[in-house]
Amino acid sequence: MSGQNPEIDAEAAVLPRDLVDDARGRAPRRPRRHKHRPVWEEEPSGIGQMTKAVILSVVVLAVLFPLWTVVVTSFSTTQESIQAGGLVVVPGDLTLNAYKQILSGGVVTRAALVSVGVTGVGTVISVVVSVLAAYGLSRPGSFGHRPLLFVFLITMFFGAGMIPTYLLVSSLDLIDTYWALILPGAVSAFNVLILRNFFMGIDNAILDAARVDGAGEWRILGRIVLPMSKAVVAVVALFYGVGYWNAFFNAMLYINDNTKWPLQLVLRSYVLQGVTLPGSGTGQVDVGSGAVTGMPVKMAVMILAIIPILLVYPFVQRHFTKGVIFGAVKG
Amino acid sequence: MTVPAIAVLVVFAYVPMLGNVIAWQDYSPYRGFLNSPFVGWANFERVFTNPAFLHAVENTLTITLFQLVFYFPVPIFLALLLNSVLSPRVRTAIQAIVYLPHFFSWVLVVTIFQQIFGGAGLINQTLHTHGADHTVSFMTNPDTFLVLITSQAIWKDAGWGIIIFLAALTTVSPELYEASVVDGANRWRRMWHVTLPALRPVIVLLLILRLGDALTVGFEQLILQRDAVGSDVSEVIDTYVYYQGVIYGDWSFAAAAGLVKGVVSLALVLGANKLAHVFGEAGVYRRA
Fold first, then answer.
1. A GO biological process this protein is involved in (chain A) (predicted)?
2. Which terminus of chain B has a smaller tally of CB atoms within 10 A, N or C?
3. In whole angstroms, what is the distance from residue B75 CA to residue B164 CA?
4. Which domains does chain A possess?
């Protein structure tokens, strides 16, 4: 805008002298500037840059350092951990024994399998049901469109409460079943709306063309809509998956039988609350036999709970930077 | 196609809503919903005159307010800082690291804090090897509990907040900055007159969402630490409802307390949204 007015040569007034070609047409003598710095931005002060670097380093370290000690401790021998007084910061004697111990078929192995099962089955159910609902809701003007949309919206603003939900689950005889960990939270209105928003962005002309060619709604959803929406469906699957994997309170409410506990609840009892892990020797000091006990085992359980998150993380990265989520959230 | 989802919601969201009828009953699991006698507003009267419930409300509001002041601005500040980092590679790397804990469970986050700050954690471990003779109990001290849970919240979720604010910052047109430079605005004036106004809709949106959650403060986070620190500072409305209902079996009373919370939360969201409209912001939803 400013450049259009010939009377005000704003650019020349603002740009540093050495950026403007001099009279003899020589290339300007450029100062060393960061290649991404906009031309109008002033050079930062040294102190400012230092402060920024220090703050950001502290922030990054605050996240990474605890994870580092947990990882190192989980790979350490018991002696190493006892010598360090608990957590190991500098890697010394490394071993896989802690992992061998928790994965050799005890409480932790079973809990991990329960978590994997609940997360897998739950995510599939949630995604299928949500995609169907979102597609159904994505065609304004279809039968009962607005009232049905309201059925979803209301659940976002008003929850029934813990007590009636608990009484319902218990009267359906779902206590101590894995279904209690899946069904009550199987449909998240928020995720349905993310999907719906995306589906609504698909050009109706494409779908109409398919209809003219005789495709039914199921075929349109499976052959046209879904292939166009892979990214957003994947993100929603991720939301559901992480939710199922991380949930612990529903298991605390609904699962009394501790052989059916998911990993998060085992993590809480044996690592956070320090209850002795049956058959693993956690809590006992056993230096002589060379078996890994205590801290390394506890830390290995934590790593086990983190691994699935790390596995999906590169994927999160890719899609979040694409802005799939934010487009949907801002809606 | 919407049928399966509606079915799930009807059974697990709407039936329990009706189940709140027990708040007006003297419910016992043996008699069931149908045969428990109605007692009018007696349970609600008990709720509002119960000192323990009022104390839980007080704790809830204290935590919400404290986090609003000390947690809410953190991601905004860090996003502005990160936004000024010029190298896209460094920026992306820092982003990727700081929002990782958002995907951790609360059990994991609390456990990590315990390993670092707990009585047998890394800090005390280091203090002991350097000759300290007493243990500093960050995890069990009721006086510093607010600081503890706020730090945990920041550690877990500030990175996520950063992402949201950074996304909003990318929408600011560079022309605005150029124009303001032409008008002689320095770094700080540009932040005040260009950057922050651009963030305002997002800030308002997040504040509204937060207000709706004002009575829900970190339930999982708190119930995990209630035993360690004591119920005096960690009892919030949700943990109170859980203990009164599921643990002590006072179902009707607990349902009444939960219902009060649900209704007040709903009123808060709707009210805040209305307020946002009054101030000309989009808010969470628009009137159709």
1. transmembrane transport
2. C
3. 9
4. 46-96 (no CATH), 105-275 (1.10.3720.10)
**With contacts defined as CB-CB under 8 Å, which chain A residues touch B74?**
none
pTM of the shown model: 0.85
B167 touches chain A (CB under 8 A): yes
Q: What is the ipTM of this complex?
A: 0.88
Q: Which domain holds residue B105?
A: 62-235+264-278
Closest Cα partner for B114 from B140, B92, B135? B140
| Chain B neighbors of A86, CB-CB under 8 A | 115, 120-122, 125
Q: Which amino acid is at B11?
A: V
Distant-in-sequence, close-in-space partners of A34: CB < 8 Å, separation ≥ 6: B86, B87
Among A240, A257, A253, A260, which residue's Cα sits nearest to residue A168? A253
For residue B164, being part of any structural domain is answered with yes
Contact A162 B1 (CB under 8 A): no
**Binned average pLDDT, 10 residues per bin, chain A of 331 residues:** 46 50 55 74 82 93 93 90 85 87 86 95 96 88 81 87 92 93 92 89 86 88 89 89 93 90 90 68 39 77 92 78 49 36
**Using the beta-carbon criterion (under 8 Å), do B1 and A87 form an inter-chain contact?**
no
Total domain count for chain B?
A: 1
**Which of A270, A272, A299, A306 to probe the B interface (max B CBs under 10 A)?**
A272
